[in-house]
Amino acid sequence: MYEKKQGTIKEKFPQEKRAYNTRGAENNENAELKKIVERYVTQVMDKLKAEWQKEMESRIAAEREDAARLASMSSEERAKAEMDRRQKDFETEREQYMSEKAEFEAAKELEAQNLPVSFARMVASSDKDVMLENIASFKKEYMKAVEAGLGNRLKGTLPRISKEKEGYGDPFLTGLGM
Fold first, then answer.
1. What would the DSSP string read from start to end of 18-64?
2. Distance, CA of 61 to CA of 1 (rounded, Å)
3. SS (H, E, C) the chain
4. Mean pLDDT computed over 26-47
5. Which residues touch 119 (CB under 8 Å, ≥6 apart)?
6. Prediction pTM value
7. Rounded to 10 degrees, what is the CA torsion of 97, 102, 105, 109?
8. Which of 108, 163, 155, 162 is nearest to 131 (CA)?
9. Residue 4: phi, psi to the nearest 5?
10. Which helix (H) or strand (E) holds 10?
11. How does pLDDT run across 48-61, given as a tens digit for each residue?
């Protein structure tokens, strides 16, 4: 049954060795979880792809209408339409810049008053006086909310003092014999 070769023993008929996979159930759960996640991701991707295609189709249709409209215009009308489009684009960029600037100024003022900067968008205004009024009213309401929250957290029962010993005093003083 055993052969001896160069100081080692080899089995002629090795016993069947079974590898027990203790992670079998875990692998099945992971596989099922992976399938569920994959299915969910596929659904989300399909939905996003459909939205993107719909947006692209509407954009292409709008571009075609603009091109057809511009083709039917004279050169002066085309130049005027192009100027109007550029003016409109400029105005939207200007409004965006002004709102970002107002939000930045509001954030600076909130920081100076030790208030959370995350509320800058709420109190921002293009008019500095209006912004300061917004910050003042926000600060008033914010401090009320903070005080109410602290009051609720600090509410509780007073600590009970044991009244079993009448002459209960300071243990330090009693240790000194006082």
1. ----TTHHHHHHHHHHHHHHHHHHHHHHHHHHHHHHHHHHHHHHHHH
2. 84
3. CEEEECCEEEECCCCCCCCCCCCHHHHHHHHHHHHHHHHHHHHHHHHHHHHHHHHHHHHHHHHHHHHHHHHHCCHHHHHHHHHHHHHHHHHHHHHHHHHHHHHHHHHHHHHHCCCCHHHHHHHCCCCHHHHHHHHHHHHHHHHHHHHHHHHHHHCCCCCCCCCCCCCCCCHHHHHCCC
4. 89
5. 110, 138, 142
6. 0.47
7. -160
8. 108
9. -105, 120
10. strand 8-11
11. 999 999 999 999 99
Token code pair at residue 118: 């995350």
**What type of residue sits at position 67?**
A
Contact 90, 84 (CB under 8 A): no
Residue with tokens 């909130």: 110
